[in-house]
Amino acid sequence: MSATFVGMPAFPTAAREALADSQLRHNLAHATGTIRAKRAKVVEEVPDWEELRLAGAALKERALLDLDAQLVRLEETLTANGATVHWARDAAEANAIVATIAKQHAAEEVVKVKSMVTQEIGLNEALAEEGIAAWETDLAELIVQLGDDLPSHILVPAIHRNRAEIREIFLRKMAAAGRPAPADLTDEPAVLAAAAREHLREKFLRAKVGISGANFAVAETGTLVVVESEGNGRMCLTLPEVLVSVVGIEKVVAQWDDLGPMLRLLPRSSTGERMNPYTSMWSGISPGDGPQEVHVVLLDNGRTRALADEVGRQALRCIRCSACLNVCPVYERTGGHAYGSVYPGPIGAILNPLLRGVGHDDQIDSLPYASSLCGACFEVCPVRIDIPSVLVDQRAQVVDAHRAVSWRSVPKPEAAAMKGAAYVLGRSRRLSLVERLTGLGVGLARRFGLTAWTGARDLPEAPAESFRAWWERTDGGRDASGNDAVDPAGPDEDLRKGDL
Amino acid sequence: MTDARTEILARVREALAGSTVESAEAHPETGRASEVEPVETPPSHAPVVDLFAERVADYRAVVERCSAAELADRIAAALPEGPVVVPPGLGIDVPGAVVDDGTLTAADLDRIAAVVTAARVGIAETGTIVLDHGLDQGRRAISLVPDTHVCIVREDQIVPDVPDAVALLDPTHPLTWISGPSATSDIELDRVEGVHGPRTLHVLITPAE
Q1: Do A189 and B190 touch (CB under 8 A)?
Q2: Residue spans with biased composition (Basic and acidic residues) (chain B) (predicted)?
Q3: Residue contact B174–A282, C-beta within 8 A
């Protein structure tokens, strides 16, 4: 049984714990630094990179804005190619469909290609409840699964583990899951990879049912695409008799030719390679080659909610490359677990609230604030998702959701502060009164509270005199003698002036 | 209760009410044509072939160029000890090789050391070989399970970049894009060649027939 993100604390709490872990920070800084450099090098090679990003964004956007027609077309072409198409409104429906197919074939185990969407729906846990073992076959996913751990990166889910920790996990846990690790296992990456090869080979060779996601689904031709590195994907897509692919409805692209730009954008953005080692494409069933029973589960699970959000809808263009994680100064310091979701980093900070809605879960509501809005994520996004703009819009939605809860509910301190500010700023007389009390307020705050604010920020010194008071006293600086004086103006004078 | 298909499609239509594809095309950020201009084919094909050879080798694959007459010898030299499988329509005699008739199981293939196949397309820019699993390449399993893959690419099959390859490929075939041997960077992002796919990729580039 693997760990779960359910019940994770809100981002600030989780981030504080992560920041205290110096080993984690070291692992992350090394990994994100390496991959940033690799990406920059291969992106530099492409003279038309910006045009390519525009093309990628446009073709995904067009498919999304025509999604109903594209999905119907995809269903037609997949069916014509011999695949069986299922539709699932939510995680429970999708999991039930997969479990039913596995049971029809009396499968006690399935082999899995690395897939974000099956993690999103908790497929492994759902299958375990039905007595079906789901084996992760991607090396990083295997490390996470054996270690009873949680993924912390979209591309490299075990990015938070170093080689010594991985060796330890293999030695302790592989035996219970199948072929044990060799006793003389070292922590050389090549040796660890070889141990994974030996451990998984028997599972590939005997598997009756394979499970995958898809990076792209081409409506025109009924083709699914899986992009990978190790060959575990090819194994799962080729050797089993039955293949079930769970595909989010946003994965659809309209035309076969759309794969040209997408396959130029994805590997360079993701692993920082000109091309990933293996890409598999299949259109339903090929007689005599690969699985002869092919299922595709088209999943909503909040995607139509995101689609209805006109600002946030662009997040559905995401091709899960993880470039935004690798450049994010927040992710680099906190790692993925602090986001409490299989989708961490900047994209997770918008995707989770968009898929699940705001206003009902403090953890989700905290995510749009897990950003400094520096914009690095937008700069690298291969499909030009303007993550900072969506973050700001999501913040507004979080505030609105809390405003609307009920007249009886206690307002959040931020909402109360904003209300107070609106009152004070609405009349200059109120403002001048408050300006004169600022010094006192800052002193009190420093002494008695506002720790949530001051825990991460310095509270500025209150000036001895406000700008408006200074202007009033010196006639906008024209009274040269006033320049040196810092005594605040008397209250009577200011009040007499009334509204400016 | 409505079925999931009806409900999801209704939700999609509701979500998109008021938005049209045309509105996307008018959007300044995404208003460009979706087609990226294919890289212009240079007057001579030689630079494309050279680039292909160089980029495949970058992935730590073995790359050799040889004439059609030398091919049989080069294949023999590339093969490791042990059984070899070839697709039914390879068209080159590989002495001692098992010709796949579709009956070899995954476990049978696991006892085979190497496979020799042709290819459908080579992509110079990315050093990628694409198999469409025609008769000279065989079904997907035979080029996956054995640990050494010897792959023959003809110079006239090599195109400049990815969109050129997509335009040539037929999606009714299963397609496997191969860029170097199996690899992983999952441990500290340290690239290691050789996980589940063939750990040795040996590419033989021959002139057009």
Answers
A1: yes
A2: 24-35
A3: yes
Which tokens is A276 given? 């990933």
Is residue B18 one of the residues assigned to a domain?
Answer: no
Distances in Å between the alpha carbon of A345 and those of A11, A334, A342, A370, A372? 11, 9, 10, 8, 12
- The answer to whether position B195 is within a domain reads yes
Say which residue the tokens 């339903």 belong to.
A284
Q: Please name the amino acid found at residue A252.
A: V
**CB-closest option in B20, B174, B182 to A231:** B182
Size of chain A, expressed as the number of residues it contains: 500
Name the amino acid, one letter, at A122: G
pLDDT digits over A47-63, tens only?
999 999 999 999 999 99
B33-52 b/e (C-beta count within 10 Å ≥ 16 → b) = ebebeebeeeeebeebbebb
Find out whether A249 and A282 touch, Cβ atoms under 8 Å: no
Q: Tokens in use for A172?
A: 């302790």
| Domain extent for B67 | 39-206
Which positions in chain B touch A264 (Cβ < 8 Å)? 36, 161-163
Query: Domains of chain A: which residue ranges?
Result: 11-122+209-304, 413-497
- Tell whether the torsion through CA atoms of B38, B43, B44 and B50 is positive or negative: negative
Run of H or E residues at B63:
strand B62-65
Contact criterion met (CB below 8 Å) for B181 and B59:
yes
Q: CB of B41 within 8 Å of any CB in chain A?
A: no
- From the list B32, B110, B180, the residue facing A58 with the nearest CB is B32
In CATH, what number is assigned to the domain containing residue B65? 3.40.50.10420
Query: Measured between CB atoms, which of B23, B25, B180 is closest to A277?
Result: B180
Query: How far apart are the C-alpha atoms of A149 and A165, rounded to whole Å?
Result: 12
Distance in angstroms (rounded) separating the CA atoms of residues B134 and B131: 8
**Cβ–Cβ of B188/A30 closer than 8 Å?**
yes
- The answer to whether residues B100 and B85 touch, using CB atoms and an 8 Å cutoff, is yes
Kindly list the residues from chain B whose CB atom is less than 8 angstroms away from the CB atom of residue A197. Answer: 194-196
pLDDT tens across A337-364, in order? Answer: 999 999 999 999 999 999 999 999 999 9
Please tell me which residue, A423 or B36, carries the higher pLDDT value: A423
Model confidence pLDDT, tens digit, residues A369-423: 999 999 999 999 999 999 999 999 999 999 999 876 555 556 666 677 777 888 8
**Is residue B112 a part of any domain in this protein?**
yes
Residue A291 token pair: 């699985």
Of A59, A137, A143, the CB nearest to B34: A59
CATH no. for A11-122+209-304: 3.40.50.10420
- Domains of chain B: total: 1
Say if strands A209-212 and A242-248 run parallel, antiparallel, or are unpaired. parallel
Q: Is A54 helix (H, G, I), strand (E, B) or coil?
A: helix
- Shortest distance, CA A81 to any CA of chain B (angstroms): 8
Q: B43 CA to chain A: closest CA distance, Å? A: 20
CB contact under 8 A, B194 and A192: no
What chain A residue is nearest to B19 in terms of C-alpha separation?
A65
Nearest to B29 by CA among A397, A186, A60, A174: A60
Q: Which residues 149-188 on chain B approach chain A with CB closer than 8 angstroms?
A: 161-163, 166-167, 171-188
